[in-house]
Every structure is written in structure tokens, then in C-alpha cells.
């Protein structure tokens, strides 16, 4: 729970009102949360009483109450209460009243916290006494429950659902088990963020988990779950049509036990493998019966064909060919198409060798596009075990390269075998060299990427393969720009001039996508956004990996345009897509890190960047490792960890120098390092770094990259005492960013201007710049920057004021407001009610002549 501080803070804040009921599916972490809150209360010196309900003990009268009072038997009143707890209903009122009296007596000396886990299983006698106390205690007696019982806490209870773990939290959870980041993110998706399910998948205990949940389900719920396990896309409405009249209640029961998750009408298993394990429980005859029933009620023709085939599992040439034909006609549902191809391969009779091989290869290709790794591995293994033709081997290897995603080592292994398979075939060699070029690009080897791209273009021209030729020219353009050569435009123009047919699964290699990326590098953000939105619309109907490039790039563009909410939405979707399809988490996590830096939370940004660095190291992805290091450097700089930020940014500097990268527009890390070096007193090196980067910009120095360097140089000039030069530089940078439509960078320039003016003791000008930055950041929901600007504005606005007229309590409440505490958090820390805090703040506002919380923060921060 130390890794989930926000969740703990929510519980502590909710406890201010006295009673909190924690709920959530089995395995989500309710018990761990309660233990953590209880431990924290003991550390503070509170008296903590704990009990846990057990299904087998719910008939033992007074057992939970006895557990709460264990260890307190030396107290005569407690002994009397313990005896009373064992007696029948006729002493119900006395039992509750006595328990409440004991709690209040203890609360006279220190706060009391009553913690009951699995509330639904406690005995009725204890439930009565606890409910009576929870309704009436108040003051310094608080109650924390977990479970599904509705009546126990009474009307006072604050309901709090334990949310699923985020992907980085699951990665941290599984790290002691040696799980790689990419696999951990897949497990996060499979488990829907449920830590117990994630651990079961990691340790190979899915069968035990399924058996445990199955044993707790009622008979009707079991029948409904079996129908779910047989459906390709289970929904509540499908279950109702299949005869499960109480489907909603049955599904809710399975959700409580952590077996299913529901999103609207859609149902999925956690983990996905649970569906196959459960289908086996019904037996072959029952499975065939369920499939026959579903074939009559599904609304999709492709799903109907699937169910009819599963109802007849024996080899049948006509059924196999029908499955293959249906799969070809289902390109918009690649996961279903992949399954149909695989079913077809299983149903071809022994003499249909060629047709079976073609279905298996098609299953691999469709499975890669759908992001279903288990199916891909099964189909690919079957192809390679059956002496495939050279063409089939090359197609499978090429599909597996796509399956490797952003992992350079995985690509290298597959490509080595693919090159051998492609020997003597110009078209196949062109494809192999194309992917070798892309693999080298990910590894940061721009020179190697260019060499392979040249070979790909040559072989493609020899074979008349126009598509591979165009994609090879695109990779040449990418490598050329990264190396700082001037011929990249010619390569890109040549690629753009030719139409590229059938690039499904390779959108990120197309000239149109690269042109959009270069437009973003050149600060033509609206052009880039328009192009990327068009690509995203087309990618929705294609392979899943085609979604990643537009989503991540749109998040990046939205971040720079100040569309903070939009950036977060694109980034979250990219993370979700990558996890569900077992793609590399690096690109999605980079999008999340950069979006959090601008519109979210700095600590979360740091977490995503740190996990991203580790993931990219594991996968040999140098390009995204440097991007994550840049995001990490920014987060660390703003969190005040300058030395750590310098280390991260120096690593980028070293890698670029080693690999010969010379494009300062794609990854603008130099301004951040300049600021850090100035902070540590390394002024000469800071200025030298900025000047070198500016020289490399050449004619593009008046755009965003140059303006960022101007801002960094202004920071350096101000530190050296040359405030006039500093002001000129930062104002020029602000003007450039305003003209480019980049409000975040413009606001950062205003913050630097405010700092410079404050050093000159021009407080009015300083306040004006800080207020302008605050208005800018607030208007675009750039929360971390708005907080920064608010502190800067408060440091100026209240200069010369005093708050000596406040009482000690009023001053304490006001100080906690300045520290960012909510009214609930203040009440919890001061052991008063929320209403008392509100009344105190009203008096503070009146005494100081203020009207709002924001004005109070400015007033007191300025005084400090």
C-alpha cells in the first residue's frame, strides 16, 4: 500500500466523517488497505480494534465482537461486554449500548479506530452491536469496514470502492517475480488491475484462482458463466437471448468474486485464460449444446459460423472452407478472423495440407493484427512444425517481426532466421531488410538503419515491389534527418509522391505518418494534428498496432498545443491498446509521462518515465529510452531533484554523441539541461551547450526549438546578473511560442520573466507576468504548471502583509490550506469536524479581507 499513497489519503480523508465502507471485487486489495490504515493509526498512537469475518464462523454468536475486544480482558467492563456478546437476542440493545460506552470511554484519552474486514461474514449478534456504535459514536471514534453488507454502517457511512491497480503499480507488484515490464503490462490488462489475479497469472496459479471463484458461485451463476465462456463476445443481452433470464444478477455475482469485469454491456474474463479453463468444466457434450444454442441467437454471421463449427469439432472439409471464407470476409474483427482461421486449420482433413498451411499462416497474420499473442504463438508453432514452403516461412517471420513491436532484440532473432528463409528471393529480401532497418532505428543506429533501407529499396526495385521501395525511402528520410543530413527532404518527397498500397500493420513506416511527425518537429502542430486524426480514423478498422502511432503522436501534439485533457485521453488509450495487444509499453508510457507533466501530476509523470526507461532497456529500444529520460529529467527538475535530472539528461547527451544524432528538433532536451547546469553553478558549460544546439538549428532557430533555447539562455543570463539580456530573450521566446500556438511553453517563458522581474524588485511587473502565466495555465487545465504559477504569484502578491490578527487555531487551519490540504484532511489532522473547519476559514477570510481559498494561499505564501 505504500505504492498507493493516493488511495490511502482518500481513506484517511473519508474517515473524518466517522464511518467508511470499503468495497470492491475479491482480490482487489481491500484487506491490505485496511491493514495499512490500521498500522498507520497504531503508529499515531490511536487505539485500534480489529476483527475479520469468516464464512464458517458467521453462526458463532458474538465471535466478531470478541475478536475486537481480544487483549482487553483485564478491563471489568470489557469482560462483562464479552460475556454479553455470547447471549441471545433479548439482550441486543444492552449489548450495543455497552459496546458504545466502552468505545467512548477509550476515546476520552485517545482516538479509537474500529476495523472490521469481510463484514458480510460476521455473526448477527456482533453486527447489531457494531451497527449501533457506528450510528451513534461520533467524536474521536471511527469505523472502517470492508465487505458487501449494506445495513451495518448505517446512514453515516462513506462508500469507497478500491480502484484497480494502474499498470505501473502492477509492474512494481510483479517485479520481485522477475517479470519483464512488457509482460507485466499484459498481465495488468489480463487481470483488469486486480492484484490477486495478476499474481495468479504471474505464478501460474490461474487454475487455483478459477477453482476458488467457481466454488463460491451459486448454481445459476455457474450456468451463466459457462455460457459466457463459450461466447466469442459475451454480453448481458446475448446471455438474456440465450435463455439466462437472470443474467445481470449472475454476472454481478461473478464480478464480486473477481472472475469477470463488465464495461457497459460487454463482459470479459479476468484473466482471459479463465474462459478456456471454465469451458472445460462443462464437458464436451454440454459445450456442444451451448454452442448450438448460441449459434441461433448471435447477431453476427461470423459468430454463428464459429458456434456451428465448435458444435461439430470433427474434421470436415466443407466446414473448414466455410470458416476460411468467413474469416477472409471479417477483416474489421481481426481477433475473430484469427480464431476462425485457426478453427479452419483444425478442421481440414489430413489430405488438405496446402489449405491447412494457408489457414495457419493467415491465423498468424490476423492474430498479430488483433494483438492476441497466445493464438499467434500457437499458429506459428504449428506452421513451422509442418515443413512450410519458403513463402509461408517468410510470411510467418515477417508477421512475427511485427509481433515483436518495439523490441529490437526480439526483432533481431526473428530477422536472422527470416534472412536465411528469404535467400534468393528479391521480394522477400526487400521485406527482411526493411524490418532490419526499422530494428536498427529502434536501437538508435541511424547509420545501420540507412544502410538496410538502401538494401531494401534496391531489392524492392529489382522485384518490382513498389510498397517496400516507398517504405524503404521513408526509413532513409528518418535516418537522414536524425543524422543531421540535408537530403532527408528529397527521400521523403519521393516516398510521398507514390501511392502505397496495403500498409496494414505498418502505418508507422509510411511516408504520410513520418511527414506528420516531421511537421510536429517543425512546430507545424495543426498540420500534424489534422493528418494524424485522419490516420487514426483509418487505423480504427485495421490491425491494433496501427493505432499506437497516431494515438501517441496525437497525445504529443495535444500536449504542446495546450489541449491537456485531450492529451491525457489519447495517452490513456495508447496505454490500454498496448497492454491488451501485448505490445511494448514504452510508447504509451512516454505519452502518459509527457501528458502528466503538463496536465496531470508530476509524481505520476516521474513514475511512468522511470518504468518506461526500464522497459526500453529490457527491449533494447534506444529511441524511446532517450524520450523517457527526457520526460524523467523534466519531472525531476520540477520536483527539485536537480542532480538526478542532470544524470538523466546527460545520458541522452552521451547516447546522441555516441550514435551521431544531430537533430535538435526531435528531442528538445538541451534547454532542460541548461537550466539544471545553471542551478548547480556550471554557467560556462550551460551557455556552451545552448550555443552549440542553436548553431545546429540553422534556419529553424526562430521556431520552437530556438525559443526554448532562448528561455534557457535567459535563465542563465539572469543567474549571471544580466537581467536586461535575460528579459529580452524570454520575451522573444514567449512571442515565438504565442505565434506557434504553444501556450504551455509561452507560460513557462512568462514564469521566467516573473522571476527576473522579481530579482530586479519590479514587483508589479513580476506579479503581472505570474498572473498572466496562471491565467494561461488555468485556461488549458495545465494543473502542475498552474500550481507552479500560483505559488509564484502568491510569493509576490502578499509582500508586506501580515496575519498576526489570526488566533492560533485560525493560523493553523490557514497554514494547512496553504500546504494544499482539503477541509476533510484538515479536520482529520486537527480532530475536529469538517463544519468546524469551514467556520474557521470563514472567520479567517473576514479578518484578512479575503474572499476565497486561492486568495488566502496567495496572501500567506507571499508573507512567507
TrEMBL record:
GO terms for molecular function: DNA binding. Keywords: DNA-binding. Residues 799-864 form the HTH luxR-type domain. Gene3D superfamilies: P-loop containing nucleotide triphosphate hydrolases, Tetratricopeptide repeat domain, Winged helix-like DNA-binding domain superfamily/Winged helix DNA-binding domain. The keyword DNA-binding applies. GO terms for biological process: regulation of DNA-templated transcription. Pfam families: AAA_16, GerE. PANTHER family: TWO-COMPONENT RESPONSE REGULATOR. This is Regulatory LuxR family protein. It comes from Actinokineospora cianjurensis.
Amino acid at each position: 500500500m505504500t505504492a498507493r499513497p493516493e488511495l490511502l489519503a482518500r481513506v484517511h480523508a473519508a474517515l473524518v466523517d466517522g464511518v467508511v465502507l470499503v468495497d470492491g471485487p475479491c482480490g482487489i486489495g481491500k484487506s491490505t488497505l485496511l491493514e495499512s490504515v490500521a498500522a498507520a493509526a497504531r503508529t499515531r498512537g490511536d487505539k485500534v480494534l480489529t476483527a475479520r469475518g469468516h464464512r464458517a464462523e458467521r453462526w458463532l454468536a458474538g465471535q466478531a465482537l470478541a475478536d475486537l475486544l481480544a487483549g482487553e480482558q483485564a478491563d471489568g467492563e470489557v469482560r462483562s461486554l464479552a460475556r454479553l456478546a455470547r447471549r441471545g437476542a433479548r439482550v441486543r440493545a444492552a449489548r450495543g449500548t455497552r459496546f458504545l460506552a466502552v468505545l467512548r470511554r477509550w476515546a476520552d484519552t485517545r482516538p479509537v479506530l474500529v476495523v472490521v474486514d469481510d463484514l458480510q461474514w460476521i455473526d448477527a449478534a456482533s453486527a447489531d452491536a457494531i451497527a449501533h456504535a457506528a450510528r451513534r459514536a461520533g467524536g474521536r471514534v471511527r469505523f472502517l469496514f470492508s465487505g458487501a453488507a449494506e445495513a451495518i454502517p448505517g446512514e453515516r457511512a462513506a462508500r469507497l470502492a478500491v480502484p484497480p491497480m494502474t499498470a505501473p503499480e502492477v509492474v512494481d507488484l510483479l517485479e520481485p517475480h522477475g517479470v519483464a515490464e512488457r509482460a507485466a503490462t499484459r498481465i495488468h490488462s489480463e487481470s483488469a488491475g486486480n492484484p490477486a489475479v495478476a499474481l495468479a497469472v504471474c505464478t501460474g496459479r490461474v487454475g487455483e484462482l478459477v477453482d476458488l471463484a467457481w466454488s463460491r458461485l451459486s448454481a445459476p451463476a455457474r450456468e451463466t458463466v459457462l455460457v459466457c465462456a463459450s461466447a466469442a463476445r459475451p454480453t448481458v443481452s446475448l446471455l438474456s437471448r440465450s435463455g439466462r433470464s437472470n443474467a445481470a444478477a449472475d454476472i454481478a455475482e461473478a464480478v464480486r468474486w473477481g472472475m469477470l469485469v463488465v464495461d457497459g454491456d460487454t463482459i470479459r474474463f479476468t484473466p482471459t485464460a479463465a474462459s478456456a479453463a471454465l469451458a472445460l468444466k462443462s464437458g464436451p457434450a454440454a459445450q456442444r449444446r451451448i454452442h448450438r444454442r448460441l449459434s441461433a441467437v448471435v447477431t453476427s454471421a461470423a459468430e454463428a459460423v464459429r458456434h456451428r463449427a465448435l458444435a461439430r469439432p470433427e474434421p470436415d472439409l466443407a466446414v473448414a472452407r466455410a470458416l476460411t471464407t468467413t474469416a477472409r470476409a471479417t477483416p474489421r474483427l481481426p481477433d475473430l478472423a484469427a480464431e476462425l482461421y485457426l478453427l479452419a486449420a483444425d478442421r481440414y482433413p489430413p489430405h488438405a495440407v496446402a489449405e491447412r498451411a494457408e489457414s495457419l499462416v493467415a491465423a498468424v497474420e490476423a492474430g498479430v493484427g488483433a494483438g492476441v499473442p497466445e493464438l499467434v504463438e500457437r499458429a506459428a508453432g504449428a506452421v513451422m512444425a509442418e515443413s512450410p514452403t519458403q513463402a509461408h516461412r517468410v510470411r510467418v517471420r515477417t508477421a512475427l517481426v511485427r509481433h515483436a513491436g518495439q523490441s529490437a532484440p526480439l526483432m533481431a532473432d526473428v530477422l536472422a532466421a527470416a534472412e536465411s528463409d528469404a535467400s534468393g528471393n528479391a521480394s522477400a529480401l526487400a521485406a527482411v531488410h526493411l524490418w532490419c532497418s526499422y530494428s536498427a532505428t529502434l536501437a538508435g543506429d541511424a547509420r545501420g538503419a540507412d544502410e538496410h533501407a538502401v538494401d531494401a529499396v534496391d531489392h524492392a526495385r529489382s522485384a518490382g515491389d513498389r510498397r517496400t521501395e516507398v517504405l524503404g525511402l521513408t526509413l532513409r528520410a528518418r535516418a537522414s534527418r536524425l543524422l543531421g543530413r540535408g537530403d532527408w527532404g528529397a527521400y521523403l518527397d519521393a516516398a510521398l509522391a507514390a501511392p502505397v498500397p496495403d500498409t496494414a500493420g505498418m502505418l508507422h513506416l509510411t511516408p504520410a505518418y513520418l511527414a506528420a511527425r516531421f511537421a510536429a518537429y517543425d512546430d507545424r502542430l495543426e498540420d500534424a494534428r489534422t493528418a494524424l486524426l485522419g490516420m487514426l480514423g483509418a487505423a480504427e478498422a485495421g490491425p491494433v498496432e496501427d493505432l499506437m502511432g497516431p494515438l501517441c503522436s496525437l497525445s504529443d501534439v495535444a500536449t504542446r498545443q495546450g489541449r491537456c485533457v485531450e492529451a491525457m485521453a489519447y495517452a490513456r488509450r495508447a496505454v490500454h491498446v498496448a497492454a491488451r495487444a501485448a505490445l511494448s509499453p514504452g510508447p504509451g508510457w512516454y505519452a502518459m509521462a509527457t501528458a502528466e507533466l503538463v496536465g496531470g501530476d508530476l509524481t505520476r509523470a516521474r513514475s511512468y518515465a522511470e518504468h518506461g526507461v526500464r522497459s526500453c532497456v529490457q527491449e533494447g529500444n534506444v529511441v524511446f529510452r532517450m524520450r523517457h529520460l527526457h520526460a524523467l529529467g523534466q519531472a525531476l527538475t520540477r520536483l527539485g531533484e536537480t542532480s538526478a535530472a542532470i544524470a538523466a539528461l546527460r545520458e541522452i547527451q552521451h547516447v546522441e554523441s555516441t550514435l551521431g544524432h544531430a537533430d535538435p528538433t526531435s528531442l528538445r532536451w538541451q534547454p532542460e539541461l541548461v537550466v539544471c547546469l545553471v542551478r548547480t553553478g556550471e554557467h560556462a558549460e550551460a551557455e556552451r551547450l545552448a550555443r552549440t544546439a542553436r548553431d545546429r538549428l540553422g534556419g529553424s532557430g526562430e521556431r520552437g526549438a530556438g525559443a526554448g533555447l532562448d528561455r534557457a539562455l535567459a535563465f542563465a543570463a539572469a543567474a549571471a546578473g544580466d537581467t536586461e539580456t535575460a528579459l529580452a530573450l524570454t520575451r522573444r521566446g514567449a512571442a515565438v511560442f504565442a505565434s506557434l500556438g504553444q501556450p504551455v511553453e509561452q507560460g513557462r517563458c512568462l514564469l521566467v520573466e516573473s522571476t527576473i522581474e522579481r530579482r530586479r524588485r519590479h514587483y508589479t511587473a513580476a506579479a503581472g507576468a505570474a498572473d498572466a502565466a496562471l491565467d494561461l495555465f488555468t485556461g488549458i487545465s495545465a494543473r502542475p504548471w498552474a500550481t507552479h504559477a500560483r505559488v509564484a504569484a502568491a510569493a509576490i502578491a502578499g509582500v508586506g502583509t501580515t496575519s498576526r490578527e489570526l488566533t492560533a487555531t485560525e493560523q493553523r487551519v490557514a497554514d494547512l490550506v496553504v500546504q494544499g490540504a482539503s477541509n476533510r484532511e484538515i479536520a482529520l489532522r486537527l480532530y475536529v469536524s469538517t463544519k468546524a473547519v469551514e467556520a474557521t476559514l470563514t472567520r479567517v477570510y473576514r479578518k484578512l479581507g479575503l474572499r476565497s481559498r486561492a486568495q488566502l494561499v496567495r496572501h500567506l505564501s507571499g508573507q512567507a
